[in-house]
C-alpha cells in the first residue's frame, strides 16, 4: 500500500513538472508570435482550432463506420435475397424438368 502511495506521489510530481514545462512552452510560443510583425495568434485560438479539427475528424470516422456498417447490412441483405431467388429458380426448374419427364396419358 505504501509503495502505491509513493508511486502515486511520484506520478503527480512528474505530471506537475510536465504541466510546468507545457505552460512555459506556451508562454514562449505566445511571446514569439506577439513579437513578430504578423497578426498575433493566440495559443488558445490554435488549441481551439486543433480541438475543432479533432472533433470533426472523430465525427467523420463515426460516419465512415456507420456507412461501412450499412454497406455490410446491405450486402448481407442482397446476398440473402439472391440465395432466395436461386432457391426459387431451382424449385421451378425441378418442377419443369419433372413435369416433362412424366409421361402424359390422354
Automatic annotation (TrEMBL):
Organism equals Ceratosolen solmsi marchali
Q: Which InterPro entries match?
A: Ska2_N
What's the protein name? Uncharacterized protein LOC105363383
Superkingdom to which the source organism belongs: Eukaryota
Q: Name the Pfam families for this protein.
A: SKA2
**Gene3D superfamilies with a match to the protein in the record:** 6.10.250.1380
Q: Where is the Ska2 N-terminal domain?
A: 2-96
